[in-house]
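Run log, item B.
One chain of 605 residues. Sequence copied directly from the ordering sheet:
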Amino acid sequence: MTAELHPVLKSVTDRIIARSKATRAEYLARVERYKSREPRRKKLSCANYAHVAAPMTETDKLALALDKVPNIGVVTAYNDMLSAHAPYYRYPEKILDYARHVGATSQVAGGVPAMCDGVTQGKPGMELSLFSRDVIAMGTVIALSHDAFDSALMLGICDKIVPGLVMGALAFGHLPVIFVPSGPMPSGLPNPEKAKIRTAYAKGEVGRDALLAAEMASYHSEGTCTFYGTANSNQMLMEIMGLHVPGAAFVPPRGELRDALTRAAVERAAKASALGEAPAYMADVIDERAIVNGVVGLLATGGSTNHALHLPAMARAAGIILKPEDMNDLSGVVPLLARVYPNGSADVNHFHAAGGIGFVIKELLSAGLLHADVNTIWGPGLAAYGQEPTLRDGQLVWVDAPAESLDLDILRPVTNPFSPEGGLRELRGNLGVAVTKISAVKPEHRVVEGPCAVFDDQDDFLKAFKENRLPEGDFVCVVRFQGPKANGMPELHSLTPSLSAMLDQGRKVALVSDGRMSGASGKVSSAIHLTPEAVDGGPISKLRSGDIVRVDCENGNLSFIGDEAQLMARESAPRPADADGLGRELFAPFRRLVGEAVSGGSVFW
């Protein structure tokens, strides 16, 4: 059952529409210029067309020559470095076979890079992580620029890959675009056990052999890492924003149901093309309502803070301007319905078994906390995403998601949430604007005031921690020159075990940074994405160790406590030398062009 839209959702959506009027109109006008009910290849010259068809079989060439046969372009982020992407190895072959069965053809239009943040955490390569999103967007555009496709399938799952694919695909908003996941790996070592061993290693209580054994038991197979970080938050977003086949997000790899969902995506890509009766153009799917639904889903499930960067960037690719204040206001009315690690002990497989995203969508619709009347790749309305797929006699069918949670420790209804609010908040004060996520932060740790210890590099903090050179008692850790303009805004997840260890000692500790934390970060209060960043002369560049800083996640305040005029009169700390090596020098133009974190940290806007 769908309830009347909540007034705050209506108000936030209306102001996004008003704010985005000019940019959205410009985007839609551009899309309209490229819409066509004829095959895209008919616009090519004979020589252009011959290049498209040259590698095809004779049968596929004949099919392509027919005016009404859609050609599906596939953009793949396959590599076998990412566990989540390794299953894509056979997908192009499967997709072509499925396409032939519905009278269509398919071609791999191109590949995009997909780096693994799990490998580069705390290493120089992480400085390319955020920028890889925009590279992926450009790679997607290059793949589809052949203009020989009537619809497209996106093969990608992990952190920056899905946002990059969305941004690139939106440049082809005149095409139907469907995202095709491959599912999570089986559950391994329980997440709380892994977290304990990481903290013990940070304290020096266990050796590297114990740490490696724990990590190998956690990340052990093909599929998405099972904690609720950015990758799995991506999959939730693609469901709730209507870009998946309903229920596709968290079905395991390599099973009959997964293959059936991939086949359904191909069939839908053929039927929803501009050659079909009811085209599902991406520009119509991703509108202001879909973006608000994405934010609501993020809040209701306790998703990754990285999407405070990615959602504004994805929205802007569709001409929509999303701001932190929008997320903050929505957070105040959207209840937290899920507890998945790092916000709880369960993983995404447990979440899926308890009712999953279908249950969440049904609950939010029943409370008027989602726009029900959106367009999706599956058709009008979001109701279909409150169902889940299953096989009956070998046939794919959809049934209603569970009416009740099967585990109230993992998943709850809107009438009995874990928290009445989503937990992603905006912080403002004389240090600037930042975001924080409090879903996993205990109430007694949400307000921290004390002397700060200032570092220009996360390695300097880690060294000080190991050498016991940090302030005694409560304190605020400040790590600056970590914003997009400084070094590409790497995740600072390596700080989490050490900060958590101090929290476990009974101290109050908070992090303030113009950088970002991993989607897997949890119980430490963190004011991140701070804008203006240090390289722009923001107040964080003027802080000195010993200054008193207040991080108040309850009341949305981030402030230097003292003489503000005297703080602003100080010289900014000198900017560290520009990083090079491991290809970082090639991204110097990106660091010069990139926008502020509050706008998505993109080089495009």
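Observations after the first pass:
- The chain has 23 helices and 16 strands.
- The first strand starts at residue 71 and ends at 76.
Flagged for discussion on Thursday.
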